[in-house]
Amino acid sequence: xxxxxxxxxxxxxxxxxxxxxxxxxxxxxxxxxxxxxxxxxxxxxxxxxxxxxxxxxxxxxxxxxxxxxxxxxxxxxxxxxxxxxxxxxxxxxxxxxxxxxxxxxxxxxxxxxxxxxxxxxxxxxxxxxxxxxxxxxxxxxxxxxxxxxxxxxxxxxxxxxxxxxxxxxxxxxxxxxxxxxxxxx
Length: 185
Fold this sequence. Notes:
Blueprint: H1 3-10, E1 15-18, E2 23-28, H2 32-42, E3 51-53, H3 69-78, E4 83-88, H4 95-98, E5 103-107, H5 112-121, E6 124-125, H6 140-147, E7 152-153, E8 165-169, E9 175-179
Parallel strand pairs: 1-7, 3-5, 4-8
Antiparallel strand pairs: 1-2, 2-6, 3-6, 4-5, 8-9
């Protein structure tokens, strides 16, 4: 991944780029101002948390996630994949991310370039490239209709894919599908 993108993300900037599923509008999950700017750009309801891309299970510790043994086994078996997993978050430090839900969805992408980027810049919020309720962008021209010159763009060509599958993972390792997507579980 080029150093310009790394610098932009490390300095609180926002990038539209391919993820492991669809185009995402990404920014540092650990930068509250960046997260709020993405909410504004996407015209997203402020009570809906974003999915967070991470590079390893160890990254969950940055968010205060305490895994049970059964949860850890499940994650090790199913990641990396286009599978976003909702886990409980403790405390108020990350309220700007969980929006009062006390849980967040995390995903380790199955894409080497993206994983390498995450290792360099840290966890990223990565909602799809669209305004809430509208069709996600399949290419950069569609993305620019949403966000104009307000973000940096990485052209990955046309991407027509399903979003990630989202599940809620309980302490006992059992799970419930909340959104069926590209990962079959």
